[in-house]
Design brief:
Elements lengths: L4 E3 L1 H11 L6 E3 L7 H7 L5 E2 L17 E2 L3 E8 L10 H5 L3 E2 L2 H13 L4 E6 L15 H9 L6 E6 L2 E4 H9 L2
Parallel strand pairs: 1-2, 2-3, 5-7, 7-8
Antiparallel strand pairs: 4-5, 5-6, 8-9
Bound molecules: iron/sulfur cluster (SF4).
The site of iron/sulfur cluster has 9 residues, from helix 3.
């Protein structure tokens, strides 16, 4: 059996357009992606699985490792954006800022390091806003300080859209850790 499905941002912002395409069997919004197996099993006859992304209360955690190369892993820590720049659809597709539980981030990076990964690239939709939705004032710098304590990981970079900043080099130079 074949199932043609559309996932993510475009479903979130243009579901009516996608629903007009008869060949598409299933549409799934941005916040439901990590439940894909369950969605396919349970909703095989439904055309669309989509929640109001602005009502998503917290970060939808994919668990360990979204993408890995031989020695480098990409670690997503945040979703959504509150900036609403006039030209950008991202807030409508990804919703408000939701930050990943730092304990899960640290756990993932430790697991990666234990498995020989040398470099972690921390990413998200608007990572400068990491922690904005937490009540304890824990921010991106706090996360980076905690990540910096993980001994086995040699390098941590931050990815802001196309720019990648080598955090460990800068941080260790400034704080001499
Ligand atoms: S993702 Fe970037 S461009 Fe889009 S609304 Fe947020 S800050 Fe603006």
């Amino acid at each position: 059996m074949e199932l043609l499905s559309q996932f993510g941002c475009y479903v979130q912002v243009a579901k009516d357009e996608i629903l007009k395409i008869p060949e598409i069997d299933l549409c799934v919004g941005t916040n439901e992606k990590n439940n894909i197996v369950e969605i396919v099993e349970n909703h095989l006859n439904d055309k669309i699985v989509l929640e109001d992304v602005f009502k998503a209360p917290e970060y939808s955690d994919f668990g360990t490792v979204t993408y890995t190369e031989k020695t480098r892993a990409v670690i997503k820590v945040q979703d959504g954006c509150d900036r609403f720049c006039s030209y950008c659809l991202i807030p409508y597709a990804r919703g408000r800022v939701r930050s990943r539980n730092p304990e899960n981030v640290i756990k993932e990076i430790k697991e990666l390091a234990d498995n020989g990964i040398k470099e972690g690239v921390i990413t998200g939709i608007h990572i400068a806003s990491y922690g904005k939705d937490f009540k304890n004032n824990y921010k991106l710098i706090d996360l980076l300080e905690d990540v910096n304590k993980i001994e086995k990981i040699e390098r941590v970079r931050l990815r802001f859209n196309r720019a990648i900043i080598d955090f460990t080099r800068i941080y260790r130079k400034i704080f001499k850790t």
